[in-house]
Amino acid sequence: MKHIISVLVENKFGTLNRVASMFSARGFNLESISIGETEDSEVSRMTIVTRGDDRIISQILKQLNRLIDTIKVIDLTRQPHVERELLLMTLKLTKTTQHEIFELINVFKGKVVDIKQKSITIEVIGSPDKINTTIDIFRPFGIRELARSGAVAIHRGES
Amino acid sequence: MNEIMHAPGQRLNGSEIFFECLRREHVEYIFGYPGGALLKVYETLYDVKDINHILVRHEQGATHMAEGYARATGKAGVVLVTSGPGATNTVTGITNAYMDSSPLVVFTGQVPSSLIGNDAFQEADIVGITRPITKHNFLVKDVRELAATIRKAFYLATNGRPGPVLVDMPKDVLNAECIFEWPETVDIRGFKPTIKCHLNQVEKAAKIIAKAKRPLLYVGGGVISADASAELRRIAIEQNIPVTMTLQGLGAFPGDHPLSMGMLGMHGTYWANQAVNSCDVLIAVGARFDDRVTGKVETFAQQAFKIHNDIDPTNVDKNVKVDLPVVGDAKHFLSTLLKELPKTREDRSQWLAEIRTWQEQCPLSYTIDDTSLKTEFVIDEISKQTGGHAVIVTDVGQHQMWTAQYYRFTEPRSIITSGGLGTMGYGLPATIGAAFGIKDRPVITICGDGGLMMNIQELVTAVYYKLPIKIFLINNSYLGMVRQWQELFHKEKYSFTDLSTSNPDFVRLAEAFGCKACGADNPETARNAIREALSYHEGPMLVDFRVVKKDMVFPMVPAGASISDMLLARLNPKTMV
């Protein structure tokens, strides 16, 4: 099962490496990892998307906690939370596809961030599932390049 | 006693601060080797009289010595090495300490901050390299952070589950000056180990143990590092519960007590493994269900209700799913359990009688004759002549397993051995380290001819410091354990395990180092050689025991098999010489 884990860590060099290398050393799956400073400049928040059965997820949570630079580990999966990912994607643009592309951008509440004669770059924000769907729908138009931020997530309401 | 040379508030350079911090951590010994990045530290060290620097001959030796010292004394072992190759040479020793949870603080020199990342001379990213093999590590970027970092390093190494911590110190930081401040307290928000066990869990454990008809204590190194042997002894004896120990747990309970089942696992005793298979409650304390203990995990103590106490929550449910986890320090667990357990208990005499039957069916035994020498005899003899009161350090392989089987460990901290990593070459340097910490008991290494050669350079260190260690070399001219697996599982293809034509003459080799040495090749000469070595105190002594070449360690659970499928003896007697 997919899990989304939020980890508060010391904002120090090497922390991302400690977490990522723990995942690889212990053979845990790491679907995405994103990191950024929080309201406290000494603390960063990492959002990790991983998969595993209950035993593996429980090991992952404990191993994360064991790292000295880890301050707090929260498995958001079964708690109310908001999860978002950013997609930047450049598509081929032709006279015939142009109309349909613009319509779909509206459907996905995306934005055009750059446009050239033969290409268009769009941004879409949403849950990783929505991002997957977006990519599938736009694929037939020809994707030149794409970049995903990986999920970031936060508790809903007061925690 | 260390004398404090500089009071806080004085302006000092980095290397002076370094020694001030070590004084405040009550460091007696540093195992080190100088080099370019550490010149300033060694300049300061020249006038330091209250901390002993032990000059090693290879940085790997320094890490094993520090670990031997740490395991013998319970204090953190300290290593000091230069940047680049000095630092990378510590990697095996650090990994060994990590796997066996030994407190180590390793200080590495580093190229000047301005050169870091430039592939400078003798530069290695040792913080990056050792991240997965240390409990934590630090790169000190500013001399003002040095004292606090050293304080944290010792705190982390020795609190909670012990482990190695590395502090990387760039050359410019060691030269720079600042006002020396010693933080009296340490607060690391990401490090709050659970020492006290949850009372509810201990109460539950007590209820289950009280009702158990066939309980078994399975204890590991955690009992020794928590200094909980006395509590363990009381529980086992008051409740009449047999005790089996892991390799690292040997000595936690006296091996000569009737309730001691000896070691369990791959080369454990038949009766300990049978007891694991048949117990109704398994009480694991400070042990981590290692694969060499469990064999096939699905069948390990299948019918038992499993209680698991460990200070590290990641050890719970990692290899074997348990029924009642109790996270916390082993001493706290056992002492709380003592209070919670009722004085009246189940009658367990039938259970103990059953175990005794297994013991009689398949005891540990060996045969001797006058003309050849068996390892089991040598170890048995060492055990008898020392009364089980020596500090025994082993290397890795057959001799290690035979030591676990035949030496009667009666006290905690009396076996020092590489368990998790299985590092050949560990024995000699770890013995040297232990000998600096222990002066009132014989310190003995039992090692093989393969492993001894892996760190033979440290014999210089033992000779130079006149350490009265005994190097009991079990010389079968083979990489015996590998040979054993080749015979049992690899079609008797003895690929590169025969050392007979390439081994040196160990007696002459030792003498070249200035070490007293002799050989023995039958029970009589062996007995005399052990006696002579134990009464020689002027320096190290090596005894080259030329034992039979193709012996095998039994019982044995083949890797991945259930522990009920033990091999009790050699299948094909023709392969024995």
Write structural notes for this entry.
- The complex is a heterodimer of chains A (159) and B (577).
- Chain A is α+β, with helices and mostly antiparallel strands.
- Helix content of chain A is 30%, strand content 41%.
- Chain A folds into 2 domains: 74 residues, 2-Layer Sandwich (Alpha-Beta Plaits), CATH 3.30.70; 75 residues, ACT-like. Chain A, domain 2 (Alpha-Beta Plaits), CATH 3.30.70.1150.
- In chain A, strands 5, 6, 7, 8 and 9 form a 5-stranded antiparallel β-sheet that branches. In chain A, strands 2-3-1-4 form a 4-stranded antiparallel β-sheet, with helices on one face.
- Chain A is elongated, with a radius of gyration of 18 Å.
- The N and C termini of chain B lie far apart (56 Å).
- Chain B folds into 3 domains: 169 residues, Thiamin diphosphate (ThDP)-binding fold, Pyr/PP domains (Rossmann fold), CATH 3.40.50; 163 residues, 3-Layer(aba) Sandwich (Rossmann fold), CATH 3.40.50.1220; 180 residues, Thiamin diphosphate (ThDP)-binding fold, Pyr/PP domains (Rossmann fold), CATH 3.40.50.970.
- In chain B, the strands form 4 sheets. Chain B has a 6-stranded parallel β-sheet with strand order 3-2-4-5-7-6, sandwiched between helices. A 6-stranded parallel β-sheet of chain B has the order 11-10-9-12-13-14, with helices on both faces.
- By secondary structure, chain B is α/β, with parallel strands linked by helices.
- Helices cover 36% and strands 16% of the residues of chain B.
- In chain B, α1 packs across α2 and α3 runs parallel beside α5.
- At the A-B interface, α1 and α2 of A face loops of B.
